[in-house]
Amino acid sequence: MLFPPASRRFHVAICLSTLLVCGTPFLTPPVMAAPKTVLSLSDFGARPNSGADATPAFQAAFAAVAKHPEGAVLRIPKGRYDLFPAQASKRPCFASNATESNSDGTRTIALDLRSLKNLSIEGNGSLLMMRGNMTLLVAENCENLTVSNLAFDFLRPTVSELTIREKGDGFFTAQIHPDSKYEIVNGNSIRWIGEGWTRSHNLWQIFDPTTERVWRAGNPLANMKKIEQIGPGLLRFEPAQLTSLQVGQVLQGRDTTRDQVGMWLNHSKNLTLRDVKIHFMAGFGLLSQFSENLNFERLQVAPAPQSGRTCAVAADVLHFSGCKGRITVRDSLLSAANDDALNVHGTHLRIIEKPAPNQILVRFMHPQTWGFQAYFPGDEVSFVHPDTMKNFGDTKVLAAEMKSPREQLLTLAAPIPAEVVLNSDCLENTTWTPSVEVTNCDIKHIPTRGFLLTSRRPLLIQNNRFFRTNDPAILVENDASGWYESGPVRDLTIKNNSFIQCGEPAIDIHNRNHSGIKIIGNTFTLKDDRAIRAIGVAGLHLSNNTVKIKPTPLFDTTESSAVMLKDNSITLAP
Questions:
Q1: Model confidence over 287-308: pLDDT tens digits?
Q2: 201: which of 64, 264, 536, 570 is 20 to 30 A away, CA to CA?
Q3: Which helix (H) or strand (E) holds 178?
């Protein structure tokens, strides 16, 4: 029989005796919450720091947790746990923006959490080491889930790295990172070797550790006349044409196939990641899809400090597609990516047919977004013209049917507007749109944009530091012709942030369909001359912002003598 701790028994006794002394009639004792079931991963055969496959132990632990929907704690004794693909869960996960058109959506999942409720996973500072190309974690149809004090990494990341050591007449040398296994093929190319995979890498980035900038580049290892090994992991390259590579720069190479994701939070509610460290994610980043109320506190996405690596994510860091409720990201580091730091959006589906006055057939258009239901009975929807991105009619979904992996038949509460143009106009799901709050975060080592924000609910971006993102730090768009990422902005506050030499304009607002944007108290340190571009915004408030511009010499008098500068006037051109 379980009893509450002594301190709680004492508290209950005092309360009851007080009621009796005061003459209050005793009716029912206070109701105490049932204690959570506490489980240890070691109970299921996991042995830290052993190198053994811990995947079966996690699977057994999750099966045990499922028997305690009233609440459970899974404690992971501190140590390193290796997880291998062989016994991992393998199943289709049709992840938005990350499912290749010629695939069946199958992922190899290290931690597969399905239909679990009221679970807290306590990592106690443990490290989960992936031993192959895997998805770290999936939480599907889960509710009230917390993961805390846990780190994730790959023994062999799917991004390979090498550092330029020397550059001479017609050659350069590079040191391959010890984690990046390889072999020289035919004396003029490299095959990259992982745990259970080999690749040639078709996308490259360059990271400059001096400036801490990272940008995409053409393949710097293409068209080699000769590659030879001149020392342990040290290669000499003779290119057909010497490129602009500089000594000290780090080359990051990967394959663009999105066969895995970092994590996938799908159709789940009330999820928290607290004090979680992610040192690498393969294929894509942490993707939340049709989920509600997501909280990230002190999330650290960066290579392990002593690893010597410079890349932590094969694409976006945090990606939210079709979520609702409240998303909060606080006190976190979002860095070392191969794409954007954070992206929030819905998905426009194109209207293909009108089988009945109140029925439409809609279709996914982007080749990497498909295979999942995008509308549900009761959802509110809005029609959109792709050329203007204007909404022109609102209604509700009465019924939704998947007709194929790319098409859905919707029965709506009202007749289809007469102005709908088939095979052109789109439909937005306005129910699955979140409010977002990102505060006190550090964003750096990003080759593209910092934040992409497209949601009609309140958005707050406050007290963050954006450092040298290669493209704009914040992009507000909304499109129905490229990625089909939906959402006009109606209430966006960008307040007290620092934008340090980001791609310009540092804040870029497009498409003439946004409103209610406040940019207040920010500091812009520019590398060129443009802090903000806002095109066609209805209701734009800019106040108390500080813009720092690096002075550019107006007169260049190099190697001149007897120079006199006097009585010259400088005015701003119209």
A1: 999 999 999 999 999 999 999 9
A2: 264
A3: none
Please give the single-letter amino acid code of residue 564.
Answer: M
C-alpha separations of 81 from 56, 129, 150, 295 in Å: 12, 6, 11, 25
Beta bridge partners of 270: none
The full set of domains in the chain, from first to last, is 33-157+259-335 (2.160.20), 160-254 (2.40.10), 347-429 (2.40.10), 466-549 (no CATH)
**Cα(476)–Cα(507) distance, integer angstroms:** 8
Strand order from edge to edge, sheet including 181-185: 181-185, 189-193, 198-199
Closest to 525 in 3D by CA, of 466, 471, 450: 466
| Residues counted in the chain | 574
> 198 near 289, Cβ under 8 Å?
no
Q: Percentage helix, strand, coil, to 5, in the chain?
A: 5, 45, 50
What is the Cα–Cα distance from 1 to 438, expressed in whole angstroms? 45
State pTM to two decimals.
0.92
**Which residues, 6+ apart, have CB-to-CB distance to 334 below 8 Å?**
299, 301, 317, 318, 341, 342, 441, 442, 443, 446
Structure tokens of 458?
Answer: 């309140």
> Residue for token digits 């079709």?
322
Question: Any residues with CB less than 8 A from the CB of 254 and at least 6 apart, and which?
Answer: 158, 159, 160, 199, 201, 203, 204, 314, 338
Q: In DSSP terms, which residues pair with 126 in a beta bridge? A: 150
Q: What are the counts of helices (DSSP H) followed by strands (DSSP E) for the chain? A: 2, 48
CB burial string 483-511: b at 16+ within 10 A, e below: bbbbbbbbbbbbbbbbbbbbbbbbbbbbb
Would you state the structure tokens that stand for residue 96, as one six-digit string?
């938005």
